[in-house]
Automatic annotation (TrEMBL):
<keyword id="KW-0479">Metal-binding</keyword>
<comment type="similarity">
    <text>Belongs to the pirin family.</text>
</comment>
<feature type="binding site">
    <location>
        <position position="78"/>
    </location>
    <ligand>
        <name>Fe cation</name>
    </ligand>
</feature>
<dbReference type="InterPro" id="IPR003829">
    <property type="entry name" value="Pirin_N_dom"/>
</dbReference>
<feature type="binding site">
    <location>
        <position position="76"/>
    </location>
    <ligand>
        <name>Fe cation</name>
    </ligand>
</feature>
<keyword id="KW-0408">Iron</keyword>
<dbReference type="GO" id="GO:0046872">
    <property type="term" value="F:metal ion binding"/>
</dbReference>
<dbReference type="InterPro" id="IPR012093">
    <property type="entry name" value="Pirin"/>
</dbReference>
<dbReference type="InterPro" id="IPR014710">
    <property type="entry name" value="RmlC-like_jellyroll"/>
</dbReference>
<dbReference type="InterPro" id="IPR011051">
    <property type="entry name" value="RmlC_Cupin_sf"/>
</dbReference>
<dbReference type="InterPro" id="IPR008778">
    <property type="entry name" value="Pirin_C_dom"/>
</dbReference>
<feature type="domain" description="Pirin N-terminal">
    <location>
        <begin position="43"/>
        <end position="139"/>
    </location>
</feature>
<feature type="binding site">
    <location>
        <position position="120"/>
    </location>
    <ligand>
        <name>Fe cation</name>
    </ligand>
</feature>
<dbReference type="Pfam" id="PF05726">
    <property type="entry name" value="Pirin_C"/>
</dbReference>
<feature type="binding site">
    <location>
        <position position="122"/>
    </location>
    <ligand>
        <name>Fe cation</name>
    </ligand>
</feature>
<protein>
    <recommendedName>
        <fullName>Pirin</fullName>
    </recommendedName>
</protein>
<feature type="region of interest" description="Disordered">
    <location>
        <begin position="1"/>
        <end position="30"/>
    </location>
</feature>
Length: 320
């Protein structure tokens, strides 16, 4: 997933700091993506830049794309992060500069590690279905792994937890309640798809040292006493051992969490770095056609990098 903002703001993120339990509903922002998709951008936002190592969250749909091109995101670069593709409805065709060609379907994990540099495109395949609904997320890589070799993983078989009381949870990334995703991680975190049947009244065990957020995907649900409509992100802080969940009708959530990310990072456009020099070098390499490789098979031109901000960029501590 690309940030297609022509004037992307630099986001200083990370740094030490923990909060106790909170219930803070974060506003989303409507952002156009590609030719015909509009997403709700939940992270980063004015009140919060990260949840654990999760540094970027877009939620889109459900969109009726019958007779439309659907998602069309041209080739674009990434550094210093992992991208996570998660679908509830529809299909997305992934291509990258490693030569990967993979269709990602509902409840399958598409996980791309950019490491030092990768480029990719995402599009609704020809003959796609009527609906498109899902989320695209980024995970910041810690300094020890920021220059790791790029890689792409596709996992169609993910662990599912029966949480009792009408709750089931698919572990997308990391570990939850003793179940572990096969996806590669580089810091302690979790991402899970929570399905709540009508009448759910459950308590999900969580890690007190993790900070968490819940993204409402479909239907209305109640998370720790806060009622959420689809597209809302509830930041929950740290310090819980369990998370109360309720639903009157069928609904779904994404649970995101992890140890608070202690490093200071700088995120601009599609790059995560540690300094302005990192960002400038990544942009220059993309524009000159070096380092990122080529994405073959996409019918269209690759994205041009936006102009850099006129003011200096520097990382700072995390926002609480």
């Amino acid at each position: 997933m690309s940030n297609l903002d022509l004037r992307p703001a630099p986001h200083p993120c990370g740094g030490n700091g923990r909060t106790g339990p909170v219930r803070d509903v974060q506003p989303g922002k409507q952002v156009p993506l590609g030719e015909s998709t509009v997403v709700r951008r939940l992270l980063p936002n004015l009140g919060r830049r990260m949840v654990g190592a999760w540094c970027f969250v877009d939620h889109y749909g459900p969109d009726d794309i019958a007779g439309e091109p659907g998602m069309q995101v041209p080739p674009h670069p990434h550094t210093g992060l992992q991208t996570v593709s998660w679908l509830r409805e529809g299909e997305v065709l992934h291509r990258d500069s490693l030569g990967s060609l993979q269709t990602v379907r509902p409840r399958e994990l598409g996980l791309m590690t950019s490491g030092r540099a990768i480029a990719h495109s995402e599009e609704s395949p020809a003959g796609h279905g009527r609906l498109l609904h899902g989320a695209q997320l980024w995970v910041a890589l810690p300094a020890a792994h920021r220059d790791t070799a790029p890689a792409f993983e596709h996992h169609a078989d993910l662990p599912v937890i029966d949480g009792g009381g009408g709750l089931s949870a698919t572990v997308i990334l990391g570990e939850l309640a003793g179940a572990a995703s096969p996806g590669t991680t580089y810091s302690p975190l979790v991402g899970a798809d929570l399905a709540l049947a009508a009448g759910t009244d459950a308590r999900l065990p969580v890690e007190p040292d993790f900070e968490y957020a819940a993204l409402a995907i479909s239907g209305e649900s109640e998370v720790d006493g806060v009622r959420l409509a689809p597209g809302a992100l509830l930041y929950l802080g740290c310090g819980r051992t369990e998370l109360p969940l309720r639903a009157d009708g069928d609904s779904s959530l994404m649970l995101l969490g992890g140890e608070p990310f202690e490093e200071k990072i700088l995120m601009w456009w599609n790059f995560v770095g540690r300094s302005q020099e990192d960002i400038e070098k990544a942009r220059e390499d993309w524009m000159t056609g070096t380092r990122f490789g080529e994405v073959h098979g996409y019918d269209g031109e690759r994205l041009r990098a936006p102009d850099l901000p006129a003011v200096p960029m520097k990382p700072r501590g995390r926002v609480h």
